[in-house]
Each structure stands twice: as C-alpha cells, then as structure tokens.
Design brief:
By secondary structure, the protein is mainly alpha-helical. The chain has one domain (6-81). The protein has helices at 6-17, 23-35, 37-56, 62-81. Bound molecules: zinc ion. Zinc ion (ZN) binds next to helix 1 and helix 3. Zinc ion binds next to helix 1 and helix 3.
C-alpha cells in the first residue's frame, strides 16, 4: 500500500527531480506517477521548468527567463489537456 497520495506526490516532485529523496520515496513516487495522470502532469511541468532553468541559467535576465518558462508551461498544459 503506497504512502503517497496525490498531495504528497505533488509536494515531493521537485525533490524527486533533484534526486533529494530516499530510495523508498523515489520508488513510491515513481509508482504513483505511473498510475496518476494528474501527478504525471505536474511532474512534466516541473521537469520542463528544470530543463528551462538549466539551459537558460546565466544567459538571460530573470524577468525574461521567467516569461520563457511560463510560456513553456502553458504549452505543456495545453498538451496535457488533450
Ligand atoms: Zn496523483
């Protein structure tokens, strides 16, 4: 029986992507993401956000970076809804 409901999973998505969790927590979240479209969507957004930050870091002013990331998230959300 998984300890991770949607609330817990969404709360830990960031740490999950940054490898800041224990092996057990990673296993639980991976299992939850596999069976939950809602949390998988959150994971995709966080993942895109991480990628956008690491790609853009140091090259653009924060304001512009934030706008780019927001635009990417909106694109992702459109995809998730279909
Ligand atoms: Zn969920």
């Amino acid at each position: 029986m998984s300890q991770f409901d949607c609330q817990e999973t969404k709360r830990h998505v960031h740490e999950y992507l940054n490898n800041e969790l224990t092996e057990l927590e990673i296993t639980e979240i991976t299992a939850h993401l596999a069976g939950c479209d809602s949390c998988e969507g959150d994971y995709d957004i966080e993942n895109a956000l991480n990628g956008a930050i690491s790609r853009s870091c140091g090259e653009v002013p924060p304001q512009e970076l934030a706008e780019r990331i927001l635009a990417q998230i909106r694109e992702l959300q459109k995809e998730i809804k279909h």
